[in-house]
């Protein structure tokens, strides 16, 4: 049985000639961020086989799916922190149903057996966009992973009361720490972030300093570096990815001097004030081992700044299950 409304939709695999069309759509979508712009997605195109899709209703673009392919599995892009179906602000539930059903049917015909999605966290939505959550339920998708991320709702924020946090902030003031927003990343990467990650986790950051500087040059309004200085030395820092709704902190680190002088407490007290005009401040995930373990110390630190948990969900759905979306209305 073919899905309803198949004839109304045309699904095309992305090609670079459609870059402007893609980017223009993403900028106006109801659940997208700058991570879905092609200048962000394509910086690591050598690592993934892009298989992004565009969904047209007649001649009008109504949805895109940032994706890469691996064997018979399509992933909502593995080079991105989150993904899924990106929808027009005009998409109603019935239209989203038809879009998702047609995407699954298209992939099934193309020999793709499984679609793997890491959903866009709700705090990134410009409009309510939970249609896909419900459609995944109807198509018997499997929840394969669930992370928690700690965020502050600036419209109803909690006052910092932790004696440890307040002591750290005061320590930073006493040590005359200074926070600077900078456009260069190399010094922080080389002097603080990379040595600390290697010492504690035996890992390197996902982005090299050259890669993050390239991305910042492409998205100067969205990617920002905040460093903490003790005299003329960088002692702590964090990288901010800024969207219309929120500021997301990542690559958070401090060296020994930064730890002794309250560098991160001082920095995040500053960042929470600096981005208080945003709806949310996102501290990022606190999970390890594919979401099955929680870093208790990291969670506690974020929660003492007023952070509270939301989930970030990962699903797998069999493309053959598109038929389960037929005849759902009564």
Pattern of helices and strands: EHHEEEEEHEHEHEHHEEEHHEEEHE
- Beta-sheet strand percentage? 25-35%
Distance between the termini: 19 Å
The DSSP helix count reads 10
Give the overall silhouette. Answer: elongated
Percent range of helical residues: 25-40%
* Adjacency order of strands in the biggest sheet: 4-5-7-16-8-13-12-11-10-9
Rg computed from alpha carbons, rounded to a whole number of angstroms: 21 Å
- In CATH, what is the homologous superfamily of the largest domain? Gcn5-related N-acetyltransferase (GNAT)
Key terms for this structure?
about 325 residues, alpha+beta, Aminopeptidase, 2 domains, 10 helices, 16 strands, GNAT family N-acetyltransferase, Acyl_CoA_acyltransferase
Give a verbal description of the structure.
This protein has 330 residues and is of the alpha+beta class. The protein has two domains: 6-147 and 313-325, Aminopeptidase (3-Layer(aba) Sandwich); 158-275, Aminopeptidase, CATH 3.40.630. Helix content is 31%, strand content 29%. The strands form three sheets. Strands 4-5-7-16-8-13-12-11-10-9 form a ten-stranded mixed beta sheet. β4 and β5 form a beta hairpin. α5 crosses α9 (263-274). The protein is elongated and about 70 Å long. The model has no long low-confidence stretch (mean pLDDT 95). InterPro entries: Acyl_CoA_acyltransferase (IPR016181).
